[in-house]
Amino acid sequence: VQLQASGGGLVHxxxxxxxxxxxxxxxxxxxxxxxxxxxxxxxxxxVADITSGGTTNxxxxxxxxxxxxxxxxxxxxxxxxxxxxxxxxxVYYCNYRPHSGTSYYGDYWGQxxxxxxxx
Length: 119
Known about the structure:
Shape: elongated
Radius of gyration: 14 Å
Number of helices: 0
Strand content: over 45%
Largest sheet: 7 strands, mixed
């Protein structure tokens, strides 16, 4: 499985940005896809993820500001970032985890895309 992320860049505080991540290769119909981020000197953390059925999960810090969505036909997820804050500055990584219904059997990562929010 290959993940190609795009859409990172520079945005001002309060602005918006949309990230995309397309999965290709041996794609499963059942997989959780999501976005993680890692700021300098910090651990990687979950931002949001979404199941094949559309169930979403968000970090508390982005609830109400970020929206994750998914196009299963295109094997692509999106992260709409609104009301950006300087603390959102990080490298954002796309993640793909296929599962059997009871357990995950893979964990794939994209190359990362840098988001910088200027104050």
